[in-house]
Amino acid sequence: MSELLKATDVSVHAGAEMLVEPVSLALTAGRPFTLLGETGSGKSLLAQAIIGTLPAGLAAAGQVTLAGRALDLARRDGHRALWGRLIGVLPQEPWLSLDPLMPARAQIAEGHAFVRGLSWAEANAAADRDLAGLGLQEAADRRPDQLSGGMAQRVAFAAARAGGARIVVADEPTKGLDIGRRDEVTRLLLDEVAAGGALLTITHDLGVARRLGGELAVMLKGRVVERGPAAEVLAHPRHDYTRRLIAADPASWPQVPPRPGTGAPVLRAEGLSVSRGGRRLFDGLGLDLQPGEIVGIWGPSGCGKSTLGDVLLGLARPDQGRVTRGAGLAPQRFQKLYQDPPSAFPRCLALGRALDDLVRLHRLDGARIPQLMSRLRLSPALLARRPAEVSGGELQRLALLRLLLLDPVFLFADEPTSRLDLITQAEVTGLLTEVARETGMALLIVSHDPELLSRSADRVISLASPETAGPRLRHQAA
Length: 478
Prior knowledge:
Layout: E1 3-14, E2 17-28, E3 32-37, H1 43-51, E4 59-66, E5 69-72, E6 87-90, H2 94-97, H3 104-115, H4 120-133, H5 149-161, E7 167-171, H6 179-194, E8 198-203, H7 206-212, E9 215-220, E10 223-229, H8 230-235, H9 240-247, E11 267-276, E12 279-289, E13 294-298, H10 305-313, E14 320-325, E15 334-337, H11 351-362, H12 368-375, H13 392-404, E16 410-414, H14 422-439, E17 442-447, H15 450-454, E18 459-463, E19 473-477
Parallel strand pairs: 3-8, 3-9, 6-7, 7-8, 13-17, 13-18, 15-16, 16-17
Antiparallel strand pairs: 1-2, 1-4, 4-5, 9-10, 11-12, 11-14, 18-19
Helix pairs in contact: 3-4, 3-5
């Protein structure tokens, strides 16, 4: 197997602080390499250092050899000519990588035209084939804001591959996707490897790591704590952290008996029907949410889970039916935890400034911010950074902190843990359910993971795939 990339003693620094200890690795044609670890472990920073995309304020050291060309990582000017042509990057947040005003087909066609040199007619045809291969034929003319989180991720994946690069760096490529779509994207990544390409994947998903195989490195607090063939590491972990990571899979969580809420409903939906693009998502849906009740929403990508939550919050209108709220409850106490955390924060403001603005606007207790930061395992240093300068998992926990400051009576949590590693996912899910029980907050959780919902929700609503003939809805005990 030929070596396409060699990284030697790569480290990342913030001033005098070392964020990632020196790591050496090689990407070879036909063999995947996966970095597995919790949010903030340094796996994304390591990949960004290797490909030359570190955020401002951070510095890399070490050397990378690409296509026989040695690059000094202390300099930032060596990688640009290789992006798209030799290295294709699938970033962690599709919302930060896609042009918000450009339809999906055009975003993919640009890579075919500008990098591969195809005519625009050929590029558009190639983009349509890419979309069809990902099950996104109907999304060709939609902007990113008209796509679900999973659909946006698949569009970003197609755009990253359009230039024909032999090395693909995929940062959490399956987050926000249902199990079927996750396996589909994993197959696409493996197809790239089988065709003689190299693959570096950053993930917290054990299922993805198992399916990719190849070599696996487990990271914790900026250093590699275990490394070897993926099948061997996951079957016989030697490090305690790797064992804890495997044990944190939702399938291993204890089964908690349902605890239905009591009292007058916080929110009531009656006879809701919604269609999108000529397709009925759900019909005749009725739902009461009582204080302290935890309800799960499950279903494949694009089936209407996020739309249902938006209708309940008044962010979208149903075709039929109505939603009523409990009397005397302020509007700001009905809140949404977005699937894509960049949606919750202004891009150009430091995160601490955004939280301070919220405190001033609603006259909240700012002293709760440090308490919640500690409870969510967030470093105070993150408050000085902008949204694009923190990991997806850190940004999701900051978005949760922002909402908890408002003491919501109803929280629609749209895939709240899709960007979190297994250990942090268990902690955040536990925190959400704990807050719901303690404060009487009604909690509606959307997830692609039925195991997570069955072990955390009092009941689960399953929405059918929009591709089936006729919408289906079923309630079940958790």
